[in-house]
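request received
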Amino acid sequence: MLKWENLDQLPAFQELKNEKHVDLAEVMTGAAGADRVKSMSVPMAEGLAYNYAAKEVDESVLAKLVKLAEEAQLSEKFEELYNGAVVNTGEKRLVLHQLTRGQLGKAVEADGTDKRAFYKKQQDRIAEFANKVHAGEIVNAAGEKFTTVVQIGIGGSDLGPRAMYLALENWARKHGCFKMEAHFISNVDPDDASAVLQGIDVAHSIFVLVSKSGTTLETLTNESFVKDALKKAGLDPAKHMIAVTSETSPLAKSADYLAAFYMDDYIGGRYSSTSAVGGAVLSLAFGPDVFAAFLDGAHKADETALEKDPLKNPAMLDALIGVYERNVLGYPCTAVLPYSQALSRFPAHLQQLDMESNGKSVNRFGEPVNYVTGSIIFGEPGTNGQHSFYQLLHQGTTIVPLQFIAFRKSQIENDVDIQGSTSQQKLCANVAAQIVAFACGKKDENRNKNFEGHRPSSIIIGDQLTPETLGALLAHYENKVMFQGFLWNVNSFDQEGVQLGKVLAKRVLAHETEGALAVYSELLNI
Amino acid sequence: MLKWENLDQLPAFQELKNEKHVDLAEVMTGAAGADRVKSMSVPMAEGLAYNYAAKEVDESVLAKLVKLAEEAQLSEKFEELYNGAVVNTGEKRLVLHQLTRGQLGKAVEADGTDKRAFYKKQQDRIAEFANKVHAGEIVNAAGEKFTTVVQIGIGGSDLGPRAMYLALENWARKHGCFKMEAHFISNVDPDDASAVLQGIDVAHSIFVLVSKSGTTLETLTNESFVKDALKKAGLDPAKHMIAVTSETSPLAKSADYLAAFYMDDYIGGRYSSTSAVGGAVLSLAFGPDVFAAFLDGAHKADETALEKDPLKNPAMLDALIGVYERNVLGYPCTAVLPYSQALSRFPAHLQQLDMESNGKSVNRFGEPVNYVTGSIIFGEPGTNGQHSFYQLLHQGTTIVPLQFIAFRKSQIENDVDIQGSTSQQKLCANVAAQIVAFACGKKDENRNKNFEGHRPSSIIIGDQLTPETLGALLAHYENKVMFQGFLWNVNSFDQEGVQLGKVLAKRVLAHETEGALAVYSELLNI
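response:
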């Protein structure tokens, strides 16, 4: 029987508070530091590795974290989840995004169907549709091929798929599997849709409308915006649009769409990149095989997350160290710093994934917790960030734990040798240098040039950013966030915090306001 | 005589600590809340207004903040700065970015020249050059017009100009002053340059190489990358490239460039959008008149910052409230949330501006300070953010002060009416709703649906995002950051924290490493 206890009820958590704060500058220096970097590494799926040598942990802290994982029953809770328990207690829903990429445990039946079969069927239907588009069997009214795909969605229907598209665009071009360029319309700001529509050839564009409920205000507004533009161009919107939605939504069986592909209530928006939400746009852009390879990588990472020993389970270990940093060491933020321009929007996706999942202050039973939960996530690609906010990270008064990501090879593999090294070598040299600079610092008599060090970081190292490694990377973070939710005893799968704003916005638009809200409405000319 | 004292030496700071914490939910409710929104607003330049009704301040707190401004001699220090004092004590430099857009005080002479005249001359030289490019008087080797401009730079030479370009792109297209599209190459990741070069017509592209020192590793590497591509295309790089640099840099008088435009050591990278660093790319993209209008807006905001009464000086008031939130209320982060898709990269620019300027732990004399300084800055445009990280902002355990920005009108002014309101009205309704939702919250028996409220925010409201209002917005934040630096008694104009990483990266590339750094280098195949 599972016990869902608050973090501060677990003995290991209390013991962790008594652990000596590891002196990072000391342990990372000299031969001992070298040994640490060699040994404190966990293999991940698809040849990636999670290296945590530059985290403020030692054998003693790790032993307590292992104990914490056992007390919090992390593996058992994950098992419950993938076997179809109602882990999303708030909305009383199963949590099945892992099933979109493979079967981890027992068959899960819901809504009268086997869910793995359901998700696989959607993937296959999308593959068939995409292949027909690429083959010129599904064409526009003039009988011409579609050249562009435009995703209309917001939040999880936008950030994840967009980040994944950008992550694979160059790789796909290099490997001859780039099929169509993709664009994204998300914001209700009319300039977003207008600018995208100005920049594309609408007559050869296929639009993917993504809304699970079929009622998301921004998305329906942008759909109308797009339909308007299509009609003005003398085109029939129904011949240019597909829907990704739940089977019960008003969009599901509508004649307004060329086709509809389905997700369900068991896939949260921020966990939906591997469902039809990411599947339609990515399969159209890069072909179904690339999307399948991406799912494969994610599934392999899920399998790694099954490992019961936290020291061999990268997502679980990452989660445990993160909670130690947040709740024992007291750091409020985490920066995600990919040394890969292709991952330029990956931090924005993780920002949603993490902050929307674990930015809670009640536990899964609706009781307030007495400790801090999800941290603030932000980040930009390196080396760009080095010339920007790294100043504060190195010498500011708030310590921010860092999550580096780096690959040995670039995606396009086009490079130049300047001053004895390639750009890719310079990129990698910089990330290696930063880890050590943050950890060890450097004493200087001039305090303005002094580096305290003691800034913890981890790094995920891979050979190259490919569909497989991207899938593994994505699933790593999804599983990390899930394990942290278990540790904090919160429900990581609902998002009640977004509701109040929606309710009040509707009131403003209906002119049913008073007090401060009425004055703001007036100031904004609504 | 100016006194440069630490924040905790100022009596008003100690008094602020004894102030009663304003109950935001209470004061923002009912008729009193409406009055607050009406009265707690300061006019800014170019018709913008800074509204701080939803901040945790009242008359008593404001009185202490006014006292704090006096004790910290904020106005006097600004006066010293714009009159040419060596305010950048670390590097022993003047700080003159305000002079790039107008004269605020006395003539400032340095390097044997009047600096306002120097910056104006560069602006005029750029204008002349841009006009010739647009008129087809400066052309490529085949005698054809340039159609594209590509900025090569990193950090301040990238983030600010890129954010400004994106902010004005739609506006310029709408108003018939869009001259050339701009692209940006920044990261040393070879995929960044490769991808940009793949997407443009190099034969009709003009490249702007931006490096003050002429020695920035990433920028010189990317320059070589670009030159390589130009040569491979049978083109002469010297006919496709201009430089923005200091007069003493190796790039200044080189035959490798069509022209060179100058900045100097008194303009920090993150403050350089209004100098030649932003001037070249923006004048080429939109024409010199648009750039001049942008400078005008910035200058008007600088003039507003001269006001000695903090309650009439939006940048100073914003700074004071921010320090109160950071040092008295203890909030570690600030989110910047523009309800304008055109400002999509504005938060990334402010992240650099703020975190690189005030992420310090020693005062201007190099002595450690006993209080926290610059906060963590992050943000994404609304309404996108609402469907992402707002969950944590509403219901998480860490309170994050918010800075909203909104405009009554869109830029393209193309809109559709759906369900009785336009997209722009929906956008504005959402920001109004969020302010009140964050401040007042909403009680619910179901704790999972409960909103505590008491989340402070401010909003800058304008009519439309134009060159003038963008300039005013930019200068507002520059001046805010400057005033906060004065309050914290730090030097906001150096960035020693970026040096150690550079030194270590060089060592890695020279294979002069040992210990942890050697092992990381090996893991990354350098």
